[in-house]
Specification:
The protein is of the alpha/beta class and about 325 residues long. The protein is built from 9 helices and 16 strands. Helix 1 packs across helix 9, helix 2 packs across helix 3 and helix 2 crosses helix 7. Bound molecules: NADPH dihydro-nicotinamide-adenine-dinucleotide phosphate.
């Protein structure tokens, strides 16, 4: 019987367990494309699934991992043939559909994006859902009319995955980037990525006033809660904040004041079910607007058998930038 290596999540009496095992190929779920997975990555959500800290996994057994890049082995989908290089992020992989921390994945061809020219499979996973989400946030700000001329932009959770890619892309596009971090020791790293200013995240974690001094025209927030409330209160007239994360919490202790008195917009960002057209657009922009040297500077490589030990680290905010996982 054909088997392949995978990180398997099972239900236990208390919570869940995660282990590197051999998975039976016959247990792969339905899909019209089978992919040989070459690279994956570690996102915040993967940390939640690996540790069982939040109910991310909704089917057991599950193969963890929400992103992969690899080569098509078999396809009955008209768009894909054996040998094609593809990228897949989100769509419930690692949650409801068997995921990416495995040598093999079977998915719907409609979920796949061709590996953009100029990016290797490893680069694509160094970007992963976190970097893709950062680019969706940048595109949302642009659609809202925010440009480098509008004023500074703030990035929260800046030393994390979404934050590092957002900082690198926004600075390359010519924005004055204010990076907010809780890790003072990462100030040099953030300046190298292109941050013009680095601020202490404690400044943004005090209870927010309805309105405060206008500091930025736009922002990318991966933290949520009081931080997002402060970002909104400090956004200039007509500005916008793209909200993509909840590293500090799901709540939003804010008021309508920024919206009705300054015309500020709150832009919601979802990467998981993002339709295919904006997906392709975001990957194309990542290929052109993310400096490859900076990408390699923010990336650390680990192997499939190291993933489980890295899960708690990303939840503890100890991961700098992006982790890429070599599968084959
Ligand atoms: P990371 O862990 O890499 O980054 C999160 C960063 O947030 C940390 O590095 C830290 O940055 C900061 N942070 C952590 N805890 C706190 C806290 N208690 N208060 C303030 N800041 C904190 O995760 P990712 O970049 O992969 O993901 C970031 C967030 O975005 C997560 O909540 C994730 O679920 C969400 N997300 C959402 C997506 C979507 O589709 N909407 C897709 C991808 C991610 P620093 O040390 O610099 O302060």
């Amino acid at each position: 019987m054909a088997t392949f290596k995978a990180i398997r999540i099972d239900k236990a009496d208390k919570g869940t367990t995660a282990a590197l095992t051999q998975f039976d190929e016959a247990e792969l779920m339905e899909g019209d494309v089978t992919v040989r997975v070459e690279w994956s990555t570690l996102n915040y959500k993967d940390g939640l699934a690996l540790t069982g800290k939040a109910p991310v996994v909704r089917r057991f057994p599950m193969i963890a991992g929400i992103d992969f890049a690899g080569t098509v082995e078999q396809s009955s989908h008209p768009q894909w043939k054996a040998g094609d290089k593809v990228v897949c992020t989100g769509w419930g992989m690692g949650e409801t559909h068997l995921g990416a921390y495995a040598e093999k994945a079977r998915v719907k061809g409609d979920w796949l994006v061709a590996l953009p020219q100029g990016l290797s499979a490893c680069d694509a996973m160094a970007i992963g859902t976190a970097g893709f989400t950062a680019m969706l946030a940048v595109l949302a700000l642009e659609k809202q009319g925010i440009s480098p001329k509008s004023g500074p932009v703030v990035v929260t959770g800046a030393a994390g995955g979404v934050g590092s890619v957002a900082t690198a892309v926004l600075s390359k596009l010519g924005y004055h980037v204010i990076a907010s971090t809780g890790r003072a020791a990462e100030a040099g790293y953030l300046r190298e990525l292109g941050a013009a200013e680095v601020i202490d995240r404690n400044e943004l974690s005090v209870p927010a006033k309805p309105l405060a001094k206008e500091r930025w025209a736009g922002g990318v927030d991966s933290v949520g809660s009081t931080t997002l409330a402060n970002l909104l209160a400090m956004t200039k007239y007509g500005g916008a904040i793209a909200a993509c994360g909840l590293a500090a919490g799901m709540d939003l202790p804010s008021s309508v004041a920024p919206f009705i008195l300054r015309g500020v917009c709150l832009l919601g960002i979802d990467s998981v079910m993002c339709p295919i057209a904006p997906r392709k657009a975001a990957w194309q922009r990542l290929a052109s607007d993310l400096d490859r040297t900076k990408l390699s500077e923010i990336t650390k490589e680990i192997s499939l058998d190291q993933i489980i030990e890295w899960g708690p680290k990303i939840l503890a905010g100890e991961v700098r930038g992006r982790i890429v996982v070599k599968i084959l």
